[in-house]
Every structure is written in C-alpha cells, then in structure tokens.
Task: inverse folding
C-alpha cells in the first residue's frame, strides 16, 4: 500500500494579472516549517505541480532530504476556460467552486481525469505538492460527490490518501482554512 500526501502549496503573492506567482515571504517560512516537520519521517518520493508556488513549497523538504522533486503536469492547477482573461480567473474559480463536477467543460473534465489517473499509478509513498482545486477534485472523486468544493484546505495542509490494490482511498483531510479567500 502506498501513502499519498497531497500538500497544498503555500500562499502566493496576490496579483490578478500574474500567471504564476511566487510564495509570499511568510509562506516561505511556513514551507520551511512544514519541511522541518516532515523531515523527521523516512525519505519518500516528492512530486510537484509545475507552478512556482508548489515547487517553492516543496523545495525546503527536498533540500533537507537532498532529493529531487519530480515535476508533474497532471497535478497542476485547474485550467481556466479558453479565452478567459487572466484578470478574470479568480472570479471564475470562485463561481466554479459553487458548481458541480458534472457541469464542467471538456477541458476541466480531462484535467480532472488526468489527476485521478495519475494518482492511481503511484505505488510508493509520495508527497504531492499541488493546489486547492486539485485536492478538492480528488476528494470529490473519492467520496463520489458532485459538488466541486468539498472543503477549504489551508496553505501547506496535508490530505492523506492510500493507494492499495483496490484503488485510492481518502484517509484524512488536511487542515481547513478559516477565511473565505482562496
């Protein structure tokens, strides 16, 4: 059985027109704190979304363990609808959170399928540094729920899954974020 830990990236600098923001200074420190906490465990495989904020969240642990972080496109942030201006992405996501997975378009459906298909292939203990929507997509799939928003994973929270011969199973949700801001 493989344990899979989905870690939400740290808080990124705000800016509606920044396509791939970096972590805030505070979140760099929180990523280091997370790394110190996780480094007491045995070294396991590290995977990150290609987004900068996820890679920066993974880096302190990779440095402590002296291991490489594998970049995986399958766990990147949800793609916005084609043609949506970058400045409207946050508004779209906030509206999208209140919808159902069966109402999504083909692009988001393919994205969601790729995530779950990829996670199902993980056969060794792994930490995956990813995004709010990735985690909610996986949790909804494993629960068999249609609502997009299952919970509000806080920055650097850890949601645990197990992958055994039967498939993926939700073990525990990560700590929830108190505010309504993504």
Result:
């Amino acid at each position: 059985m493989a344990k899979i830990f989905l870690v939400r990236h740290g808080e990124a600098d705000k800016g509606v027109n920044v396509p791939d923001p970096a972590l805030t200074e505070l979140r760099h420190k929180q990523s280091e704190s997370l790394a110190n906490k996780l480094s007491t465990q045995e070294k396991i495989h590290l995977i990150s979304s290609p987004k900068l904020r996820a890679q920066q969240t993974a880096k302190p642990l990779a440095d402590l363990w002296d291991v490489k972080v594998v970049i995986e496109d399958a766990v990147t942030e949800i793609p916005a609808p084609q043609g949506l201006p970058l400045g409207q992405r946050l508004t779209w996501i906030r509206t999208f959170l209140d919808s159902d997975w069966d109402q999504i378009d083909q692009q988001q459906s393919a994205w969601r399928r790729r995530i779950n298909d990829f996670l199902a292939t993980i056969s060794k203990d792994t930490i995956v540094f990813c995004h709010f929507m990735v985690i909610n997509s996986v949790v909804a799939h494993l629960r068999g729920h249609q609502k997009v928003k299952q919970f509000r994973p806080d920055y650097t929270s850890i949601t645990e899954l197990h992958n055994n011969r039967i498939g993926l199973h939700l073990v525990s949700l990560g700590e929830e974020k108190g505010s309504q801001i993504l």
Notes: The mean pLDDT is 92. The two ends are 32 Å apart (CA to CA). The longest strand covers residues 2-8. Strands lie at 2-8, 45-48, 69-71, 126-130, 158-163, 168-172.
